[in-house]
């Protein structure tokens, strides 16, 4: 248990289709059982690597946290062994079947008289050792470095995706899980757009939420903070190696809590700068496209709309448009789709207070036009309505 | 009451009423104790069934048995039923049966209120079960997908089932407070002549402290969920940042109740242990005074460390340092308790009947859970553990041995007294081993899952978490099924078995063992003199 993060590397190819995958899980499970029984020694058909301790830290503070975790675990293991030793010694020797007579005056000896002082003092000693170390590490974790150039990343939790805003450059990343058919063995640990971060740079994370509580957790960074609506909390990290680090939302946030992976891609500062420029250019190009005074055809809007819908709306309303009533209403055959376009635009742009339906007003005019057009014509809704970016601009 | 001198003869004068009236209108502490215990046993199986569904769903990656909302609903329901339906009523059942017999009192001080505090429970349980099933009816709204912590804003999104739950919590709270008042009044006023407070049996001491804790913290929870109800329906925004409220306020209110609740669940079992271990070690409890002292210390410090459940909400460094130190300090009185139990066994003349086996398992496994608790108390390390499966493993290691095994030990220890029959020792031992081994297979691997990065309360997980989840679910099947054996043993003992003597165990001490087994309907109508 106190060994340095043992991992078992995968040795078999990934199963191709889903039926193979399920037998794969089964053999993996049986393999896991065998592993535990034979003291984690048996060879088995393990597909993905699994860990029994924290993954290798990727930031200085995370390494200190790792060390204090190992320290407390070692101290508690020693204490546990002491307790077990006394109990088992007593069970073996002080039993009636061995003819052992109970010592009726044991509690009256000097030890019995003073143990209530001796034991607490000894426990206090252990406590102070742990608390002293913890306090030193805590200061480093809790206090975001001051008077330095920090890279600010605002992390916003949404039901059920993450939004990352690089405040200085204005770049925004929306990060969502990828369905199992496309992500395979990385299902629930992979996203469409990763959180790209530079190494050897002090990064400040500002956590908040747009709806309910979430929690941002990446074990390699040892950063975990709740995302609370109305609050902005902060954490910081300085990545010391490149790599891809995976985590998940760690605060129950409703139906698809399990589908909020977090993937950090740590790159060199130079690559990060290049990536930032690339993102800015893409954003400008999209804005320019949206503001072009042009009439978009139904086909163009439907194509863009489907891409947008599948990534942003399908988590709740489903790819099929059937929703998950009663929490997430169906869009297929919904009166809203056949009703006035203005109402439809209003709910997309402003959301519906008191429900999980959030405001999508941050999308550009073209994107909203494409989404609304798609929703009004997909899944046999077939209203024939075509909504242009100009209509959206007017509705805002 | 009667003028007879020997309590043993009472049965002939006051027979129990017959039929359903005996139970519905009961003011007899023994009958009400039985009702509590039967209620708790029923709830144990309900809560166990939801746990089985959870573990079966987690057996493999993917979503197989239930949908995500139902899964979260089960998670919520499992916790609430086990805590409020199984453990607390079972402990109250032991208190009702044993406290008057242990202190030489004829009954509880407030017998009619005793009746009320039990009969609120079936109504509360009905509300609780309704909160689970209502979403399956047309127009029933969404399921409770918040977990038992009911954190807003998520709990404000939930449909009407949340309202059923809020009222269920109100009823459960009223029942607990009434029972606590009754226990305090009984213990302070009805002890036999000569029984000073510091001569009171430990089980009574633990319940005295538990009852005070309940009265202090349950109203805070009731207030918190009432504010939630107002936020949901009456336009207030106590917990809504957009209206000037604060979502974190609810967490503080909840855990101000929630953390002492842990000790409410734990202490009665510590009381049971303080009788079982001396009885089967044939030697008095080591350190009675320090036991009472450490219990008072646990209760007092336990009241002021609640925010260690919320290290990740962004408190100031001063605040988290205080809560960390406070939490670590609790290891001192708890360590002293464990030490006293081991010192009681030390140089004793031990035998290993089922209650003693459970007691030893508690000492070992509760120590383990307590030590992982010290790890969790360390704020920087908790940045990693928080809301992961490590926490799930930790609190099951504390609550199963700490609370439930203690209750099992108490049931096996006093079952001969209650029924007049010895239970089947061989079956009792089989139950112990399947139960304890099943428990460890279920929860030990969850430590690894948490450290490797699996959050709690997720229905679906990546394949990297498969191995330990499979092991855990296999353990859960063994663990879950073993409770059917408990049911069989209890029924078998009630129906018959070897006749139990007044002093059913060789080393058993205390007033309750001077009464017949089973005791007369009314006992200690003349108080014994305690030297």
Question: How would you describe this protein?
Answer:
The complex is a heterodimer of chains A (396) and B (531). Chain A is an alpha+beta fold and 396 residues long. Chain A folds into four domains: 1-53, no CATH class; 60-142, no CATH class; 151-285, Cupredoxins -  blue copper proteins (Immunoglobulin-like); 292-395, Cytochrome Bc1 Complex, Chain D, domain 2 (Orthogonal Bundle). Chain A contains ten helices and ten strands. Chain A has helices spanning 18-37, 60-93, 110-142, 180-183, 269-291, 298-317, 335-338, 341-350, 365-377, 389-395, and strands at residues 151-158, 161-166, 171-175, 195-198, 202-209, 214-218, 223-227, 233-238, 243-248, 261-267. A five-stranded mixed β-sheet of chain A has the order 3-2-1-5-8. In chain A, strands 4-10-9 form a three-stranded mixed β-sheet, covered by helices on one side. In chain A, helix 2 runs antiparallel to helix 3 and helix 6 (298-317) packs across helix 9 (365-377). Chain A is elongated and about 95 Å long. In chain A, 36% of the residues are buried. Chain B has helices at residues 20-24, 29-57, 68-103, 111-133, 154-157, 161-189, 202-233, 247-281, 288-302, 317-329, 331-345, 354-377, 379-385, 389-419, 425-452, 466-495. By secondary structure, chain B is an all-alpha fold. Chain B has one domain (20-497): Up-down Bundle (Cytochrome C Oxidase, Chain A). In chain B, helix 2 runs antiparallel to helix 16 (466-495) and helix 4 runs antiparallel to helix 6. The two termini of chain B are 24 Å apart.
């Amino acid at each position: 248990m106190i060994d340095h993060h043992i991992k078992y590397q995968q040795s078999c190819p990934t199963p191709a289709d889903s039926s193979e995958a399920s037998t794969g899980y089964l053999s993996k499970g049986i393999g896991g059982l065998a592993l535990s029984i034979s003291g984690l020694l048996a060879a088995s058909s393990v597909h993905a690597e699994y860990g029994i301790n924290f993954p290798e830290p990727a930031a200085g503070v995370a390494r200190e946290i790792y060390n204090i975790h190992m320290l407390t675990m070692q101290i508690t293991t020693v204490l546990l062994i002491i307790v077990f030793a006394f109990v088992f010694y007593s069970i073996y020797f002080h039993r009636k079947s061995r003819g052992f007579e109970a010592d009726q005056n044991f509690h009256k000896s000097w030890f019995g008289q003073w143990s209530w002082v001796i034991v607490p003092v000894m426990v206090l000693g252990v406590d102070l050792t742990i608390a002293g170390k913890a306090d030193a590490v805590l200061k480093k974790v809790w206090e975001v470095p001051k008077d330095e150039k920090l890279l600010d990343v605002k992390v916003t939790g949404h039901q059920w995706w993450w939004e990352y805003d690089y405040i200085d450059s204005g770049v925004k990343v929306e990060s969502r899980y990828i369905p199992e058919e496309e992500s395979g063995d990385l299902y629930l640990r992979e996203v469409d757009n990763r959180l790209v971060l530079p190494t050897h740079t002090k990064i400040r994370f500002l956590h908040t939420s747009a709806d309910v509580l979430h929690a941002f957790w990446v074990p390699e960074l040892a950063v975990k903070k709740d995302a609370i609506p109305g609050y902005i909390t902060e954490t910081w990290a300085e990545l010391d190696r490149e790599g891809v680090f995976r985590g998940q939302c760690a605060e129950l946030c409703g139906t698809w809590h399990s589908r909020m992976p977090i993937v950090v891609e740590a790159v060199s500062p130079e690559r990060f700068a290049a990536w930032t420029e690339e993102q800015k250019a893409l954003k400008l190009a999209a804005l320019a496209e949206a503001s072009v005074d042009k009439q978009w055809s139904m086909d163009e809007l439907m194509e863009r709309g489907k891409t947008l819908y599948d990534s942003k709306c399908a988590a709740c309303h489903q790819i099929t448009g059937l929703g998950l009533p009663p929490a997430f209403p169906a869009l297929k055959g919904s009166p809203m789709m056949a009703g006035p376009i203005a109402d439809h635009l209003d709910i997309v742009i402003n959301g519906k207070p008191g429900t999980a339906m959030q405001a999508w007003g941050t999308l550009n005019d073209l994107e909203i036009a494409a989404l609304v057009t798609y929703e009004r014509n997909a899944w046999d809704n077939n209203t024939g309505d075509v909504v242009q970016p100009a209509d959206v601009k007017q509705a805002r | 009451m009667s003028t007879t001198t020997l309590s043993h003869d009472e049965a002939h004068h006051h027979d129990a009423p017959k039929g359903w009236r005996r139970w519905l209108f009961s003011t007899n502490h023994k009958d009400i104790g039985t009702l509590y215990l039967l209620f708790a046993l029923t709830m144990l199986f309900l809560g166990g069934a939801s746990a089985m569904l959870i573990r079966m769903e987690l057996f493999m990656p993917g979503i197989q048995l239930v949908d995500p909302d139902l899964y979260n609903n089960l998670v919520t329901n499992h916790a609430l039923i086990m805590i409020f339906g199984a453990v607390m009523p079972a402990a109250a059942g032991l208190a009702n049966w044993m406290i008057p017999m242990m202190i030489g009192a004829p009954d509880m001080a407030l017998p009619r209120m005793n009746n009320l505090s039990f009969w609120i429970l079936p109504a509360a349980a009905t509300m609780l079960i309704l909160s689970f099933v209502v979403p399956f009816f047309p127009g029933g709204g969404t399921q409770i997908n918040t977990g038992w912590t009911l954190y807003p804003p998520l709990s404000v999104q939930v449909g009407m089932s949340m309202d059923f739950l809020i009222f269920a919590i109100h009823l459960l709270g009223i029942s607990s407070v009434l029972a606590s008042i009754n226990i305090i009044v009984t213990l302070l006023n009805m002890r036999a002549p000569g029984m000073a407070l510091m001569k009171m049996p430990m089980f009574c001491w633990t319940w005295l402290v538990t009852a005070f804790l309940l009265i202090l913290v349950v109203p805070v929870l009731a207030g918190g969920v009432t504010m939630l109800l107002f936020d949901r329906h009456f336009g207030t925004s106590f917990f809504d940042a957009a209206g000037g409220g604060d979502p974190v306020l609810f967490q503080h209110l909840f855990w101000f109740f929630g953390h002492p609740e842990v000790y409410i669940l734990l202490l009665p079992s510590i009381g049971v242990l303080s009788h079982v271990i001396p009885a089967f070690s044939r030697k008095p409890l080591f350190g009675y005074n320090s036991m009472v002292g450490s219990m008072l210390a646990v209760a007092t410090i336990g009241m002021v460390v609640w925010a260690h459940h919320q290290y990740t909400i962004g408190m100031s460094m001063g605040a988290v340092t205080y809560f960390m130190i406070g939490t670590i300090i609790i290891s001192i009185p708890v360590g002293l308790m464990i030490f006293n139990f081991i010192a009681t066994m030390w140089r004793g003349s031990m035998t290993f009947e089922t209650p003693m086996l459970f007691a030893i398992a508690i000492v070992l496994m509760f120590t383990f859970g307590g030590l992982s608790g010290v790890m969790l108390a360390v704020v920087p390390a908790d940045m990693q553990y928080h809301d992961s499966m490590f926490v799930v493993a930790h609190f099951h290691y504390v609550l199963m041995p700490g609370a439930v095994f203690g209750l099992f030990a108490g049931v096996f220890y006093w079952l001969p007294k209650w029924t007049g029959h010895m239970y089947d020792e061989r079956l009792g031992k089989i139950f112990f081993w399947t139960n304890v081994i099943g428990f460890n297979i279920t929860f030990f691997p969850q430590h690894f899952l948490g450290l490797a990065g699996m959050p709690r309360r997720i229905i679906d997980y990546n394949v990297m978490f498969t191995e330990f989840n499979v092991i855990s679910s296999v353990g859960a099947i063994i663990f879950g099924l073993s409770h059917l054996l408990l049911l069989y043993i209890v029924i078998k003992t009630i129906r018959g078995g070897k006749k139990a003597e007044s002093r059913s165990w060789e080393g058993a001490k205390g007033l309750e063992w001077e009464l017949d087994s089973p005791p007369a309907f009314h006992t200690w109508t003349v108080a014994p003199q305690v030297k």
